[in-house]
Amino acid sequence: MSAGLAQPWSAWAARRPEFHGSHLNSAAAGRNSSAVLQAVADHALLEAQVGAYVAEEAAQPVLEAGRAQLADLLGVPADGVAFVEHASAGLAAVLAAWPLREGAAVGVVASEWGPNLEALTARGLSLIELPTDGDGVLDLDALQRILASSPPAVVHLTQVAAHRGLVQPVADAAALCCAAGVPLWVDAAQALGHVDTASGADVLYTTGRKWMCAPRGVGVLAVAQRWWDALRVKGSAMAPAQWPVVRHLESHDAHIAGRVGLCTALHEHIRSGPATVWRRLDEVGRLTRDTLADLPGWQVVAARDGSGAITALRPTAGQDAQAVSATLLAHDRILTTASLPSRAPREMTTPLLRIAPHVDCTSGQLAALRGALS
């Protein structure tokens, strides 16, 4: 890859305001395009001009088009899509609505996102750890045996880990879980816009701010149709009677301008070609790991092909990952994240430096990062 960018990624970058440095932190929040920013501003202005609820009604065609695009990307019917504030709000909504008994078992892998573990145990559920291979990928043969012998009430997977390059085989897991009658829930917060999320999972929840490059404060919950009748949803007297059941899980006093921004980002993602974006992000991950291999004082955490764009570096010379991340930003204008063990407490023992470039990453930016870390 040259220091410049081939189409379409130069055009992708050109649609965004200039970043003064290197933005290598899309796993935290991607950069909104100018069109997304304008859509949010236009809706906010319309609220002030005609009234918030009148503006919301006017935005319904945009929101419904966004639901349809999300339904395609997440593999559920459009009536199974609800807008929420963020991924954690989606998990909280489904935990409140799903008919689970106290102490029911939930199967997770060691790399599971720490706040998800907290939410599951706070609901009174018990966790069982599912076997993985040496890279942390779910062992599908072991899962099949567990589903046949002692199935949990739910299997929960984070499709793309937040702290390192790791993508779980959720489509294969979904097929096994479906055959066993066990629902599969998927945290797609790092997956939407990053990898294929139409996996056949029963529940998916995600945020828009990461790889989809939508505004903060907007997320999505999706539920497969076969579970709609099982949801314990108390309809509001304020909600239209014809609303589908999953829509009742949606937050209503909401940031509608942000939802309009998400729908604009979805349109841009579809126009770029989702599969093309996914392939490019996987390429970016490989290029990042290749550039940073054998870097003195740092170890690239192993990741197989198909592990996406996230790369983790483990300090081997006593460096403080948080201090390094702060110095990279202050001195070199390179935006990264220090991942603390609380992000994956069943797996992580030390902080890692996370590198998460988007499709517009250049070899020059990666070389500059290597030089700064050296």
Question: What is the end-to-end distance?
Answer: 22 Å
- CATH architecture designation of the largest domain: 3-Layer(aba) Sandwich
What's the overall geometry?
globular
User: Helicity level, as a percent range?
Assistant: 25-40%
Task: Kindly state the number of beta strands.
Answer: 13
Question: Within the largest sheet, what's the order of strands?
Answer: 2-8-7-6-5-3-4
Number of domains: 2
| String of helices and strands | HEHHHEHEHEHEHEEEHHEEHEEEH
Q: What is the makeup of the main sheet?
A: 7 strands, mixed
CATH topology of the largest domain: Aspartate Aminotransferase, domain 2
Mean of residue pLDDT? 95
CATH superfamily of the largest domain: Type I PLP-dependent aspartate aminotransferase-like (Major domain)
Number of helices: 12
The CATH class assignment of the largest domain is Alpha Beta
Computed over alpha carbons, the radius of gyration is 21 Å
Keywords summarizing the entry:
Aspartate Aminotransferase, domain 2; 12 helices; 2 domains; alpha/beta; 374 residues; Aspartate Aminotransferase, domain 1; single chain; 4-stranded antiparallel sheet; 13% strand
